[in-house]
Amino acid sequence: QVQLVESGGGLVHPGGSLRLSCTTSGITFRIYTLNWYRQSPGKERELVTNITHDGTEAYVASVQGRFTISRDNGKSTVLLQMNDLRPEETAVYYCKAGGRKIFWGQGTQVTVSS
What we know:
- By secondary structure, the chain is mainly beta.
- The protein has strands spanning 3-7, 10-12, 18-25, 33-39, 46-51, 57-59, 67-72, 77-82, 91-98, 102-104, 108-112.
- Strands 2, 4, 5, 6, 9, 10 and 11 form a 7-stranded mixed β-sheet that branches. Strands 1-3-8-7 form a 4-stranded antiparallel β-sheet, with no helix packed on it.
């Protein structure tokens, strides 16, 4: 059974930081591209960042320099360090494993508010 479980969301003030974690099971983690998406109310789900099996990272322009994705193949976990968070980044953040098959986590809420 494949599982992707996100954690680390919460309430943070503007300018604050959070670290999200997505722990997986049931997949050959090292061969998958791991992605973080987010979805705000009334908006489409958008890709924020991803990291390929060989460690190549990509970011949407709005988070470049503030967010960092990393992966630990030994722990089958992908992390998202988010710094200098903005109120408009309030969203549910989802982890996705992409390869021959696609798997999603259930999401974790991030709220950026004063």
